[in-house]
């Protein structure tokens, strides 16, 4: 149900609501697909490990127990909640900043795609700084046999003790390479797809009910998610492999060259179909959750 209380657009309360909406949208959705992510990450590191997703889950349950299909759940929940806060709240902030303070509103309207791209890239750059330590722990948990640690707090302690602060951020560059194009595609494609959907509907957006608007957000989110999965797949594979295989004292560039020489171009696409299903579903439910939250607190849906 839509709130009767109005929040002033672009106020501190507005950005706080969008930030909270990002946490609600990203933390639970990413955590829910941990079993898919676990099999995907392990197949990226070793394509021969399982014959399929189902085989992967059955093997994990048989060898490690049912609870182990959620390996990395804690790090995922914390990391992507923080990332969601920075991504969604930051996007709303930078979109308004770039379209009103950096350039004129008229220029922004003519070049809206550039505004969406710049705002989403800036927001994701900052959000990844918060995500990276927990992504490093998650990947180690999911790709190590036996798991690197039993929970996220043990992982933080162990990683800091063995590698120091640098250990939390040695994957930051490949993470940016994965997440920034992903988020630029996610937000820009979503905005454009939603605009195209509204343009073809018989009623104006302002005349549609909140439920109808949220349905448009869900459809636009799924289509945008498919594009996101394809764009960010190669970097996603490299993030998994660098976090699990990077040697002590080896630079990110050296590790990337060594790993790419071994796996080749085709190896960058291991797990793509799984990722399309995972990211398409994830993205659609994130937009569904985010815009539902915005409606609940009395804000308009995105797009």
Describe the structure.
This protein is an all-alpha fold and 303 residues long. The chain has a single domain, classed as Mitochondrial carrier fold. 78% of the residues lie in helices and 0% in strands. It is built from eleven helices and no strands. The chain has helices at 12-32, 34-45, 53-64, 73-102, 105-110, 112-143, 152-169, 172-200, 210-245, 252-267, 272-296. Helix 9 crosses helix 10 (252-267) and helix 9 crosses helix 11. It is globular, with a radius of gyration of 20 Å. The protein starts with 11 loop residues before the first helix and ends in a 7-residue tail after the last helix. The model has no long low-confidence stretch (mean pLDDT 89).
Contiguous runs where pLDDT drops below 50 for at least 5 residues: none
**Largest sheet, if any?**
none
CATH class: Mainly Alpha
Q: What's the tally of helices? A: 11
CATH homologous superfamily designation: Mitochondrial carrier domain
